[in-house]
UniProtKB/TrEMBL annotation:
Organism: Taeniopygia guttata (Zebra finch)
Location(s), subcellular: Endoplasmic reticulum membrane
Lineage: Eukaryota, Metazoa, Chordata, Craniata, Vertebrata
Name under which the protein is recorded: Protein RFT1 homolog
InterPro entries referenced in this protein's UniProt entry, alphabetically: RFT1 (IPR007594)
Topology versus the membrane: Multi-pass membrane protein
One cellular component (GO) term of this entry: endoplasmic reticulum membrane
GO biological process assignments: dolichol-linked oligosaccharide biosynthetic process; glycolipid translocation
Stretches that traverse the bilayer: 12-31, 43-62, 83-107, 119-141, 153-173, 179-205, 330-354, 374-396, 403-421, 427-443, 464-488, 494-517
Predominant location: endoplasmic reticulum
Its job: Intramembrane glycolipid transporter that operates in the biosynthetic pathway of dolichol-linked oligosaccharides, the glycan precursors employed in protein asparagine (N)-glycosylation. The sequential addition of sugars to dolichol pyrophosphate produces dolichol-linked oligosaccharides containing fourteen sugars, including two GlcNAcs, nine mannoses and three glucoses. Once assembled, the oligosaccharide is transferred from the lipid to nascent proteins by oligosaccharyltransferases.
Length: 539
């Protein structure tokens, strides 16, 4: 597949995933706002922090390394061996689920049964849900490698909608069920997700469409593990790369979910405060989840397909190098501007957003400060996602192993800083520690990118430099909106709030107009790659 075709399909995958994440976040936030009025903060803290951490830990450790390794390089490979390798995620998931489940049941503080009943059933259900989801891993990787955009959208949409419908129904009819509600909803979510992928491939394989596309897997039976005479069970090159990524993924999980591990294992916050922190954290991560994560996942596939892992820039096709450098520069500029916008406007509108969303329970106390700090953290997330996406797609096995040592040291430092900052500043300390963590990771990734392109004429890191005019507008907007918040927000009535919102809207409009005038290359990239098919539909 030509590099230009890969770019087009990757951009469509990223834009579709972004729209899908918008749906997820809107539904999730609506669900949280609804359940806040029926269920306790302690119950939400146990579900959203303790049990969700169990599920994400098992799934991440069991599959992340396999995804990275099996999506590297061309889609033309011995898929029998790749599928065999991917099925190893299931026994690995069983191991992590049993191990983590025992820790969650017997080593961690158990919630008060009178406040949060059925905790043991919750641990079992969320551990089981992780194993069920891993049963669909070979199907997911095959679909992702061949850029099946529509399948991902349909599967994840149906699973999320099904989960939310069941949750709302049970919360209204049987609120006393407590954790049972979320256990059933979680099991339904993963079951629908896996079944969508299985049903699609059962219908697709052997069809005229699959034959026309020369799909590398001909029968459904080929999606199951199988032995081939006189050949190894797996591709050992992929297996060794998987092991390298596995060591990195273990550390990356600690860094990604570090604050939840500190909350869970060190008991620095009670379950009620954990519930509030999680709600604010989810609200703050809205943009990161529905824009930055789809871009990172999709363009990892692009860079892995266009450039060959382990080769220097001189040994690559120069046309592909030029395209990859240009795309990297524009992606950095795109996420930087989104991150700056969130940081600037998030500071002055955090308290108002929390007051509208959850009332005084969220807008009083540390809630607004949490969200303000998270607005800054979004900027770090934005840049780190794209820079790590590029480096993960290009690093050879030896470089991945060296990076693992860096991550190991960073993990230890991060956990120590999280613990001390949390004792000093409360839950805000978690976000400050995350900013430090992301800053170090960005420094490593940008150093790698600079070193990679130093023997070429391309300088993609210039994407991290916004135009002076746009930077000036951001500074003025920050000053105006902060002054507006002091005068009009948030206890002076709805008319004052509307004035505050209007001031922000005018500043945002001025920012966007300046962006359109000064970042023409970026605007063209967004229009041509992300918005092209939607613009065509509208004409």
């Amino acid at each position: 597949m030509a590099a230009q075709d890969v770019l087009g399909q990757t951009a469509r995958l990223a834009s579709s995933s972004a729209l899908l994440q918008v749906l997820f976040r809107v539904v999730t936030f609506g669900l949280n706002a609804f359940t806040l009025r029926y269920l306790s903060r302690e119950l939400l803290g146990v579900v959203n922090v303790r049990l969700t951490l169990l599920y994400s830990t098992v799934v991440f450790l069991a599959r992340e390394a396999f995804r990275r390794a099996c999506l590297s390089g061309s889609a033309k490979r011995n898929w029998t061996k790749t599928i065999n390798l991917l099925w190893l995620t299931v026994p690995l998931g069983v191991f992590w689920s049993l191990t983590s489940g025992l820790v969650w049941l017997y080593l961690l503080e158990v919630p008060d049964p009178s406040v949060v009943p059925h905790y043991e059933a919750g641990v079992v259900a969320f551990g089981l849900s992780a194993i069920i989801e891993l049963l669909g891993e070979p199907f997911w990787v095959l679909a992702q490698a061949h850029l099946f955009v529509r399948l991902k959208v349909i599967a994840e949409s149906l699973s999320v909608v099904s989960k939310c419908i069941l949750t709302v129904t049970l919360v209204i009819l049987y609120p006393h069920w407590g954790l049972y509600i979320f256990c059933l909803a979680q099991l339904l979510y993963v079951s629908v997700l896996v079944m969508c992928y299985v049903i699609h491939f059962v219908m697709f394989l052997g069809s005229p469409e699959a034959t026309k596309k020369s799909f590398p897997v001909a029968r459904v039976k080929a999606l199951l593990p199988s032995f081939v005479e006189d050949e190894t069970f797996v591709n050992w090159k992929e297996a060794r790369l998987t092991w390298s990524f596995f060591k990195q993924s273990f550390l990356k999980q600690i860094l990604t979910e570090g604050e939840r591990y500190v909350m869970t294992f060190l008991n620095v916050l009670n379950f009620g405060d954990q519930g509030v922190y999680d709600i604010v954290n989810n609200l703050g991560s809205l943009v990161a989840r529905f824009i930055f994560l789809p871009i990172e996942e999709s363009f990892y596939v692009f860079f892995a397909k266009v450039l060959e892992r382990g080769k220097t820039v001189k040994d690559q096709k120069q046309d592909d190098v030029a395209m990859a450098a240009n795309v990297l520069e524009l992606l950095l500029k795109l996420v930087l501007l989104i991150g700056l916008t969130i940081t600037v406007f998030g500071y002055a509108y955090s308290q108002l957003a929390l007051d509208i969303y959850g009332g005084s329970m969220l807008s009083s106390g540390t809630g607004p400060d949490l969200l303000r700090c998270y607005s800054l953290y979004v900027l770090f997330l934005a840049v780190n996602g794209v820079t790590e996406c590029f480096t993960s797609a290009l690093m050879c096995k030896e470089e991945v192993d060296r990076y693992n040592f860096v991550m190991l040291a960073l993990s230890f430092i991060f956990l120590c800083i999280s613990y001390f900052l949390t004792h000093r500043y409360g839950s805000v300390g978690f976000i400050l520690a995350n900013c430090f963590n992301m800053g170090i990771r960005i420094a490593h990734s940008t150093h790698y990118i600079h070193h990679y392109f130093r023997e070429s004429t391309h300088r993609p890191l210039t994407g991290l430099l916004p135009s002076p005019a746009l930077l000036l507008v951001y500074i003025l907007s920050a000053g105006v909106t902060a002054f507006s918040e002091v005068l009009f927000c948030c206890d002076k009535g709805w008319m004052a709030r509307l004035i505050h919102i209007s001031a922000g809207a005018l500043c945002l409009a001025a920012t966007l107009v300046t962006m359109l005038c000064t970042e023409t290359k970026l605007i063209h990239f967004v229009r041509s790659q992300f918005l092209s098919r939607y613009l065509k539909k509208g004409t």
